[in-house]
Amino acid sequence: MRGGAGDVATGADPLDDLDRVLFHEGEIHRRLDELAERITADFRGKPLTVLAILNGSLVFMADLLRRIPLPLQLGCVSAASYHGGVESSGVLELGGLDRRVVDGRHVLLLDDILDSGLTLSGVAGRIREESDPLEIRSCVLLAKRKERPVEVAADYVAFEIRDEFVVGYGLDFAERYRNLPCVGVLRADVIAAAGR
Ligand code: XMP
């Protein structure tokens, strides 16, 4: 049941804040089975490192990795856009890169969602500048169908979605909803109430 504007973000069940569910847990897991099969075939016999971009990809990463029966290594990186003044400089700060798991290896970058594409292209660019991988490919849970300011496409995409704000299965709104087992669209009044 949906709460009124007064109990926005205070309800006992975060699911109540969704306008609708796009992908239930079972559907996500079935799709991850397919993606993992492709990834396993593509990287078999190659030194593979999965690099998860924090924090949004954590749930996706945990479920995907357990479906890939390869001797892979795992790393996590953080990405933050640097705002030098009123306008963003467009510089992306990369944190946590461990060259020991990247140099001379095939890197599969994992992110929760491909939206503007700035994060994925920025992270890949910084990894190339700061280390020496054999190649970098990328895998996202969601990709929005939209024009992007940068030319970037993920090599593996679980689901394509319309250009609307989604949460759950790792994705947050103001750090909430990451633990929802599904992906859904937030109610407009929940978003509006947060802006008050
Ligand atoms: P882009 O591709 O725009 O995405 O660099 C960067 C990060 O922004 C977050 N993001 C979202 N988070 N719902 C969310 O909960 C969304 O619809 C959404 N779009 C972008 C996400 O962390 C992504 O990695």
Structural summary, described in words:
- The chain is built from 4 helices and 9 strands; from the N terminus they run βαβαβββαββββα.
- It has 196 residues and is an alpha/beta fold.
- The strands form 2 sheets. A 6-stranded mixed beta sheet has the order 4-3-2-5-6-7.
- The protein is globular and about 50 Å long.
- The two termini are 23 Å apart.
- The model is unreliable at 1-7 and 84-88 (pLDDT under 50).
- It binds xanthosine-5'-monophosphate.
- Xanthosine-5'-monophosphate (XMP) is lined by residues 56, 111-119, 165-167, 171-173.
Provide the descriptors you would attach to this structure in a database record:
4 helices, alpha/beta, three-stranded antiparallel β-sheet, binds xanthosine-5'-monophosphate, 9 strands, 196 residues, 30% strand, globular, six-stranded mixed β-sheet
Work out the number of β strands. Answer: 9
Ligand names: xanthosine-5'-monophosphate
Q: Give helix and strand order, one letter per element, not per position.
A: EHEHEEEHEEEEH
Q: What's the total helix number?
A: 4
> Percent of residues in helical segments?
10-25%
Overall pLDDT, averaged?
91
Globally, the shape reads: globular
Structural class: alpha/beta
Strand adjacency order, main sheet: 4-3-2-5-6-7
Low-confidence stretches: 1-7, 84-88
Percent of sequence in beta strands:
25-35%
Largest sheet: 6 strands, mixed
Give the end-to-end Cα distance, rounded to a whole number of Å.
23 Å
Radius of gyration, in angstroms, nearest whole number: 18 Å
